[in-house]
Amino acid sequence: MALEIRNASVIYPAQAGRAPVEALSNINLDVDEHDFVVALGASGCGKSTLLNLIAGFLSPSTGKIVLDGSDVAGPGADRSVVFQKHALLPWLNVRDNVAFGLKLQGKGSAADAVADRFIALLGLSGFEKSPVYALSGGMQQRVGIARALTCDPKILLMDEPLGALDALTRERAQELILKIWKDTGKTVFLITHSVEEALFMGTKLIVMSPRPGRITYRFDLPFSRRFLDGVPARQVKASREFIELREEVLRIIFADEEQVA
Ligand SMILES: Nc1ncnc2c1ncn2[C@@H]1O[C@H](COP(=O)(O)OP(=O)(O)OP(=O)(O)O)[C@@H](O)[C@H]1O
Hints:
Elements (H helix, E strand, L loop, with lengths): L1 E11 L8 E12 L3 E6 L5 H9 L6 E6 L2 E2 L7 E5 L10 H11 L3 H14 L15 H14 L4 E5 L7 H18 L2 E5 L3 H7 L2 E6 L4 E7 L2 H6 L4 H5 L2 H21 L1
């Protein structure tokens, strides 16, 4: 799997007497198989617009998005999206929610078995028949991730998936997502507002700036691999290297926030 974004820009047309918005300007990004790319940046810098381009929900005004040699021309089963609001179907139980995408693709006979495998991977065994409204927020978000994984996407796109969780649940979910990333070998593109989450989870970090939205900094990150090699998460996050980079990235983002304010 290789994703290439070449000179992509997005201009939202003028609305209600306002000027057009250059949400993304000249974005270039290479994502290799099994990369875990994290996008971070001040509000309005175009993170969701970039995710929507990769998902195919939006077409670039200029430039192109290429996935495995083919231009992205719309949404497809090779890309799954997990949103902050998980968009589960409240009248269905956990298994039926997780199997939903496969059944839509006409793979009904195998769907339940595949769903149960991902339900187990996300630590939800025993809840297959529970209605989703009866689950905690953290469990519902895990159902959403299981559902996205059942379709076996080439790339998993996540827009602030853990933003609504309390601090402890969020840390546990970060660790779980990293273990699943390792086990499944998926390629991940994740948006977050948390600098600590970005540094801990990503293998590649892009920092974006607004007006127009563009990539201003890129970092290769070693921290998730250290955690997966057995170093406890808190120890990784408390290391001097992690804290120094966290402060550097925070300075970049605060400078952008002040310019916008
Ligand atoms: N449909 C739209 N029409 C017009 N402008 C839009 C539209 N969607 C987003 N924008 C504008 O484009 C810019 C980028 O928005 P986007 O939501 O991609 O940023 P973001 O970095 O994801 O923001 P946040 O962190 O607040 O979610 C912002 O100025 C936003 O107001």
